[in-house]
Amino acid sequence: MTGTGGRSLPAPVPLDTKRSLRPRDAASIMLLDRAEGSVRVLMGRRNKAHVFMPDLHVFPGGRRDATDYRLLFSSDIHPAVLERLRVACGAKAPESRLRAIALAALRELHEEASIAIGPQGCGNTGMSFLPDLEKLRYMARAITPPGHPRRFDTHFFALFTDEAGVNPKDIRDSRELEDLRWIDVNDVSAVRLPDITRVILSELRASLQADASLPFGKPVPFHYMRHGRMIRDLL
User: Fold this and answer.
1) Which residue has the higher pLDDT, 8 or 125?
2) Residue 193 falls inside a structural domain
3) Which residue, 127, 11, 131, is CA-closest to 77?
4) Which CATH number fits the domain that encloses residue 207?
5) Which of 41, 82, 121, 131 is the most exposed place for a label (fewest CB within 10 A)?
6) Where is 68: in which H helix or E strand?
7) Residue 200 lies inside a defined structural domain of this protein
8) pTM, whole model, 2 decimals?
């Protein structure tokens, strides 16, 4: 269109073509109970008032907060896991960011299911324990496709209850996650899941079938969208 003086002005940009939201770092944890022969994973239903994935069952987790950088911890992340995170986030990513992602997973587990991974200790605001990162396995990464009201670059970790000293009966619902329950990883028919959660569970089943101990440092599947279709890479 033209304005005064005959100069051409750019056409207005339609609202539906606005630039996509930049994904924010997030972490999710698959807490695994293998005490009864089969493997069960802890999941809870997101409140229906949530903008992102309402009324669906998911693993405990959430975005990385700025305060996660400052959390004290009792034991550090496994070197092989740290190296995989470095591959995922880029060689220039500071180690503090990589560790903060793992710390976010344990913080969210505590906030959403009242499970503390690590010894009792003070020093962290809102937490009565010092997170133990040593037994976390890095299992998958997924970026929310464009067009969603929230977008996250989510890193999925796994942790066995017996290694972490967790009693499966100690879980408690929260405002974030309701109907917390242990789900057999081979039968999730009782709950409604987001598509990406089904994909990550499929990756978990494959990993358990390959080696039930879930060795540290194995290649990590990475799911993201490119040119309108989902891509799976290995990190």
Assistant:
1) 125
2) yes
3) 131
4) 3.90.79.10
5) 121
6) none
7) yes
8) 0.89
